[in-house]
Amino acid sequence: MRFFTTVVAVLSSVSLYVGTTWALHESDVGVVDWHKHMVGIPLSGSISTSPSFHLVNGKNIILTATTNNVLAALEPEDGSIIWRYIFDPEDRIAGYYKNATTVATLSGPGGAILRNFNALTGELLLEKRLHKPEIGALSEPLHLGKDVVFAPHSNQMYVLSNGCTISCIDGSTGEVIWSWTSPDQGSMVIHAKLTLSQSTLFATGFAKSTASFTLHATSLSLPTGELNTFVNIPSALADPLHQFILLTRPDLEKPIAIWLEQGAFRYVALTPDLLEKPRSVKGEGFARLVDIGLSEFGYAVVLRNDESSFVMRLEGMVGQAKPVWEFDDSKASEANADSRYAGVLDAHGRAHVSRVYWSHHHEKGAFDVFTAGQPHGFSTGAKTFAFNTKDHGIIGHVAVGVPDSAPIHLITTSTGSVQLWEQETLKWEREESLAAVVIAEFVEVPERATSVAGVMEEAQEGFVARVIRQIGDAQDFPRYLVNFVKRFATGSYASPSSPPPPPPTTSNSSEPEPFSRDTFGFRQLIIAATAFGKVYAIDSSTGTIVWSRVLGLGWAGQVGGRVQPVKVFVVKGVSEGGDVEVVLVAQRRASNTLVDTVAFHVNALTGSDVLGKSPDGEVLEGQDVIEGPLVEGYLLGGEKKVIVMFDEHLQVYLYPSNPSTIDYFSSVAHKLSFPLRTTIETRKRITGHQIQLSSDHHKSLAYPTWTLTLPLGEDVQAMIPQAKSGVPVASVGKVLGNRTTLYKYLDERLFVLLTVVNTPPPPPPATGSTPEDKPQPKPSHSQKCGIYVVDGAKGTVVYHAEVKAPGTPGANGKGGGCQVKAAFSENWLVYHYYEDEVEGGSVGGSKGYRMVSVEFYEGRKGDEKIMSSELTAYSNDTLNLSTYEQAYVFPYAITALATTSTKFGITSKDLIVATNNHRVQSFARRMLDPRRPNRKTTADEQEEFLIQYDPLLPNDPRRVLSHNYDVANVQKIITSPSLLESTSLVFAFGLDMFLTRVAPSNTFDVLSENFNKVQLVLTVTGLAAAILSF
Amino acid sequence: MHLRMYCRTYNKPVVRRAPEFSELHASKVMTRMIKYPRATLPSTIMSQTALDYSTLESSSKWRNLPPPPGFSKSSSFVDKRVPKKEKPAVTTESYDALKEKRAWDVAIAPAKSLPMQAFMLYMSGSGVQIFSIGIVFMLLFSPFKNIAGMNEAFAQYAPSKSDPKSITTLPLHKVVYVLCNLLTLGVGLWKCRSMGLLPTGTGDWLAFETRGPAPELSLF
Fold first, then answer.
1. What is d(CA A415, CA A42) in angstroms, rounded to the nearest whole number?
2. Does the distance separating the beta carbons of A748 and B214 come in below 8 Å?
3. Looking at the complex, does the CB of residue A739 fall below 8 Å from at least one CB of chain B?
4. Are residues A792 and B214, on separate chains, in Cβ contact within 8 Å?
């Protein structure tokens, strides 16, 4: 017996030592979080920004500029990002220009900044400002008036910027060797294209003349940049962007400019003296010249009026262009949609030109690749590939690459999907429209059991039926018991930091199991709607796309248009049983300028149309709700969830509109109010509205009840609602160290109003006595940013602050204006701004970012109670509140901020911030407590865990949630409670997507990872055995 | 002093019957009592053994019982009545005075122990720990325990002519006793307060506060 107890003691002590290993935080990386790197949807408008294959030192890469202002290099093998360069928002990328090993870009107004990158690594080799951004000429399209050509045998590049300036720049040092600016900047000439010949640099452009454009050519001496001559070539181009091309060939001396004039070809050879006369070619009926990226090798595609097309090649001897290949069946027809053309030069120097189109007849995509050769080349003939137009919209742009003998096509679709097709097979695809998510919403999903068993049936069954069912269920009890014992002994519980369980597998292939949550509610759905007419459901635990639907255009499908998502509402949540339903309210802008409001009502778990109009797999068609634009749409919660929408005349529309929702709306309508921004006689106002129920068949109307008139020159920038999302307020007050209570000023109607105050510059002194050398105050410094907290039912201004706006817009490349970011939750307002130099201010003139934390409490001191949350907006007590605020120096510029939210609101709220240096970081609420004393803390304050005020917020790198991921350009952060009170889900989206969990007060409601279940069981059984055996 | 057993239920019958059984042995009294028709003896009778000062008095019902065998005074059985005739008056008064003095001691005993308890409180510190909590619990519970057992505590000091169990016996002492116990309780509460254990502030009741829905709703 003694032996036995010794064994037990040894066992338990051994398990004690083995068990106490610390869980590393690093082990959570990739388990509790995920991120998606995105580059954005390729800009396919021009050849200088659209995707192209590029061969660098024998390696094929895909280069593209995107709508998210990113220059990216993708791996053709698997679609991964080799590198990307993110441009600042005010530094729009105008185009990229390839060299053998480098890629140059022009960006900013008028192409103000030249950069040069290593094509394989993305290393920035050169960054050079060519001119001040202020003098940059704006051009439409953006790429017009910018060009870069590389000198063939030296490191120099010739850069055309601003449409009029040509510079020769040393590629390694950035030194400007020479620069030439068009003398007649004021004239209507815009230079568009640079071409090199032996000793001459040609710049071709367009001069605006009446009704059309005239071709303009300039010839510069290559070594010195001296102007040889310039000439207006007699021509009349109707559409210079699509009817003009400049073809060269490395082996030919003279570049040829080709254009279409009234459907006929004309061309001119460019010589240093520009004396050649334009000539015509026989034949007419030509519509467009398509630059396929092979103009330097003498190839282009020509479209006739009937859309039939052929490949044209510059022929050396004659000095003119000739058709070399006619694409079969390329005429516009009912069977085929419009064709896209792309060209590429393969490793052997052979040109390939591809035509890709959608075949209505086959319901498939089709391609036809022409390979140049002797005497004319050959084509693959039309081959089809299984492009899914119902999931990805239409083919918007095509790039072709020939890494080996077989051509590969990179297709950009209208919904923002980037796909690589190798012959007929899809190699990879990137859903780049996720970089253009406009709105996203967390949606809780039901448990597996409840989603399978009909909850409704159980609610309706009678007593007898229930007893019978439960007796029937009781036969599972032994199995349950065995499972319970097994689980108890082995301790294999779901752990919050274990990898997410695999999604429910399809047991029978015919019916996929619906999406269900995990134990802790970390698996939710993120419904994300993009600006490109597609809605996605993303699994929040892994980041995989559960389903996606293309938003249909309805009647506007005939004329074209786009769907702009406005809001997403969860109209049927988990608690109501059955399937979870969401409604996406969107505005459909048809190409004929008609705007309608459409509601897309889908099952959040499967993406199927609740209205049953469009079957799964098809384009999702919505229901037209308002024949006109939407002014605002809100979700009216409570016993029924109704979407209340207002049109331009403030008429009320309900969705869903049925007698029960109308009754419910009528019963609460007298309580409702909402603010809108209005302009009356150039004065900006916020106007509150209430709803007048109509007694007859007319629609109910909203009428104005209050206005908040802003001072002259003050403009509304944003209205930010309270972060509610159904999270209850756990405590109505804050207990101080002396046991008194500060009652929180809780008013659900409060919202934050951000304004820009443009104070007009002070009028110049009337007397002429002011000496002119006296420095005038800069008018830019009179700009301020206003922050208001306003009650939505009466317009009471609860809080108002004015902060200085950063200096002149664009002076330092950083945009001026107000970039105040604010979040408001319960009684806590937090905002972030840039504090510029203060003239005579008390801040001491220190520049930097500030984070201000403001808290509102009832009464003037502790224990004063006005019951603010149930107080009517018209009470005299609404302004009986005290405001505590403190400003902190913040280390970063930020792009978004949000507070965490938990299921019961007990856990403290942390601040989640997306910084400009591509991180997502959390800041503890304790640090942002505005009651932090300015002196040594007293005993009472210590009891509250208040820390002495320190202007600098501690920037703890351990609080960086995004680890070492690059989470770039976050536009918005949303948070959602999980089933664990301690834990909140944080989702940041913008260019990249990032999701993680945070536990602001640590995971107090789960056993820690190093809790040793085995040890506990062993000890207990050992002790029990020891007791029993004695 | 005689060690005797008594029971409230049997007091009166025994007193009435005592002269008849004066020569009997105590154990025989017990047998008679058992046989007494109205009696149903509770089982706890043996456990309620107490030191009964009232036996010292001349009027006591136990006065005439013979001393137990071997007790020194029992040898002068014959002439015991002669000295006892004059002595009882003197002994009763002195006994009463003695008892009163003892009763005062008991009454102010809680107050006397206060300095010691205060010292213990001081030593235990203001933190909420096992020692301070133990002491505070003792301070909080002992007054109630004492007051509940007050009549029993004072019964033995009751003057000869009064009912030892009555609340009105020794009223002044009892009042002082209660006050002293309240003092102890007060010290305990003061300690609780200094440790922050008394729910006196609004903050302690915050969790029970509820708020109704707002009369107006903002859709925004």
1. 11
2. yes
3. yes
4. no
Residue A516 near residue A505 (C-beta atoms within 8 A): no
End-to-end alpha-carbon separation of chain B, Å?
91
Taking CB atoms and an 8 Å limit, are A739 and B220 in contact across chains? no
The string of pLDDT tens digits covering residues A131-172 is 888 888 777 788 888 999 998 888 889 999 888 889 999 988
Give the amino acid at A119.
Answer: A
| pLDDT > 70 fraction of chain A, expressed in percent and rounded | 89
Nearest CA in chain B to A867: B211
Residue B214: which of A644, A719, A869 has the nearest Cβ?
A869
- Name residue B175's amino acid: V
DSSP 8-state class, residue B9: G
Residue A741 forms contact with B (CB below 8 Å): yes
* pLDDT over 80 (residue A1008): no
Q: How far is B202 from chain A (nearest CA, A)?
A: 5
Collect all residues with Cβ–Cβ distance below 8 Å to B42 and sequence separation of at least 6: B7, B9
The secondary structure of A684-737, three-state, reads EEEEEEEEECCCCCCCCEEEEEEEEECCCCEEEEEEEECCCCCCCCCCCEEECC
Cross-chain residue pair A741–B202, CB shorter than 8 Å: yes
User: Cα separations (Å) of A221 from A203, A282, A307, A409?
Assistant: 11, 34, 40, 40
* Nearest CA among A231, A229, A232, A230 for reference residue A208: A232
Model's pTM, two decimal places?
Answer: 0.83
- CB of A720 within 8 A of CB of A752? yes
The partner residue sitting opposite B217, judged by closest CB among A672, A733, A867, is: A672
Q: Could you give the CA distance from residue A126 to residue B64 in angstroms, rounded to a whole number?
A: 126
- Point out the residue among A751, A793, A862 whose CB comes nearest to the CB of B216: A793
Size of interface A-B (CB pairs under 8 A): 89
Please provide the DSSP assignment of A304-364 as one string.
ETTS-EEEEEEETTTTEEEEEEEPTT-S--SSB---EEEEEE-TTS-EEEEEEEEETTTTE
Task: Confirm if A756 and A805 have CB atoms less than 8 A apart.
Answer: yes
Check: CB of residue A369 under 8 Å from CB of residue A358: no
Distance CA A47, CA A143 (A): 9
Measured between CB atoms, does A751 come within 8 Å of chain B?
yes
A606 token code pair: 């499967």
The pair of structure tokens assigned to A484 is 């319970």
Give A585-623 pLDDT, tens digit per residue. 999 999 888 999 999 999 999 889 998 888 888 889 999
Give the confidence band of A58 by pLDDT, cuts at 50, 70, 90.
Answer: confident
pLDDT class of A511 with cuts at 50, 70, 90: low
- Nearest by Cα to A624 from A588, A591, A594, A590: A588
Confidence bin at A456 (pLDDT 50/70/90): low
The overall longest dimension of chain B from CA atoms, in Å, is 109
- In A790-826, which positions are buried (b, 16+ CB within 10 angstroms) versus exposed (e)? bbbbbbbebbebebbbbbbebeeebebebbbbbbbbb
What is the ipTM score, two decimals?
0.73
* Residue (of A523, A521, A445, A483) closest to A1006 by Cα position: A521
Q: How far, in Å, CA of A76 to CA of A189, rounded?
A: 40
Q: How far apart are CA A791 and CA A798, in angstroms?
A: 7
Q: Cβ(A672)–Cβ(A657) under 8 Å? A: no
Nearest to A894 by CA among A984, A813, A999, A969: A969
Residue of A nearest to B200 (CA): A739
Q: Which of A48-52, A135-139, A327-331, B25-29 has the highest mean pLDDT?
A: A48-52
pLDDT digits (tens, 9 = 90+) for B116-166: 988 888 888 878 888 888 888 888 999 999 999 988 888 888 887 778 788
Chain B residue nearest residue A865, CA to CA = B202
